[in-house]
Structures are given as structure tokens and as C-alpha cells.
Amino acid sequence: MHFLTRLLPSFLTSWLLTFTLASLFHSQYVVNQLVNVGVVVGFSDRINLTLDDWLGLLPTYGAIIAVALAIAFSVAGFIYKKYHKYAIQLFVLSGVVAFAVTLIAIESIMNITIIAGARGWGFYLQLVAGAVGGFIFGSLTKASRRN
Q1: For the chain, what is the largest distance between any 2 Cα atoms, rounded to a whole number of angstroms?
Q2: Angle of helix 121-146 relative to helix 8-36, nearest 10 degrees?
Q3: Residue 90: closest CA among 25, 43, 138
Q4: How far apart are CA 19 and CA 21, in angstroms?
Q5: Distance between CA atoms of 128 and 52, rounded to whole angstroms?
Q6: Which of 81, 87, 96, 78 is nearest to 143 (CA)?
Q7: Could you give the CA distance from residue 135 to residue 92 in angstroms, rounded to a whole number?
Q8: What is the DSSP code string of the chain?
Q9: CA 80, CA 76: separation in Å to the nearest integer?
């Protein structure tokens, strides 16, 4: 019951925020690359592209992120049992590692970067999304343990 009442809502919240940030970072990276080559992109176009990317990436990239975070947070949960003091840091690190491993593995296996926004400095923005997701999950689960 602990899983359904405390962990699942925390996980879903952190996953949704993580995916939203990763999608937003991807979209804005791609738009920025277009602007760099002289394409004029208006604010409304940026908004529409961002929303279209969020919806378009949800079934694939969203699912990949969910699996990666579930694995990473599970491993961090086992480590947490020994190092209670470092809960937030463990989950932040696990979010970063989840994204790094996933993006590098997909690129290595498929020999292509499937998320255009994960090229160059966009890769680091994806890691930031993972870090934020880990922070949110760690904070929410830590708060639920106090109650």
C-alpha cells in the first residue's frame, strides 16, 4: 500500500515535471538552432511547436523517461536505506544518471540522436531535467516519510 499511496503519486509528479522540462528544453534547443541559421520564429510559433512537441513526444520519449527514472529511483532507494542523510542528493544524481545513460545508450545502439534537442549543449539541458525530476521525487518522498 505504501507504493500506491506515497511512492506512485511522487513518481508521477516528478516524471510529469521531468518530461515537461525535457520536452521544453528539446523544443527550445531546436528552435534556437533554426534561429541560428536565419529562420524567423515568432513567439506564437514557439508556443505551438512546444505544445506539439510535448504531445508528440509523450508516448515515446515520455515512456522512455518513465522507465529510466523508475529504474534509477529504485536503485537510489536501495542506496538510500544505508545513507539516509543524502536522500535528495541520491535522487538528483539518479535523475541525471538516468538521462545520461538513456541518451548515450540510445545513441550508441541506434547510431543516431533520436532527440534533436539532446545534441550539443542540449544534452546538458536534458540532464538538468533529470536532476530536477530527482530533486522533486526526493523531496516528495522525504516529505511523505515524515507524515
Answers
A1: 55
A2: 160
A3: 138
A4: 5
A5: 22
A6: 87
A7: 5
A8: -HIIIIIHHHHHHHHHHHHHHHHHHHHHHHHHHHHHTT----HHHHHHHHHHHHHHHIIIIIHHHHHHHHHHHHHHHHHHTT-GGGHHHHHHHHHHHHHHHHHHHHHHHHSS-SSGGGSTHHHHHHHHHHHHHHHHHHHHHHHHHH-
A9: 6
Counting every residue written for the chain, the total comes to: 147
pTM score: 0.90
Cell of 101: 545513460
User: C-alpha cell of 68?
Assistant: 529510466
Q: Distance (Å, rounded) from C-alpha 33 to C-alpha 20?
A: 20
Q: 46-51 long-range CB contacts below 8 Å, 24 or more apart?
A: 50/23, 50/24
Contact 36, 82 (CB under 8 A): no
| pLDDT at residue 45 tops 70 | yes
Q: What is the pLDDT of residues 51-80, one digit of tens each?
A: 999 999 999 999 999 999 999 999 999 998
The amino acid occupying position 64 is I
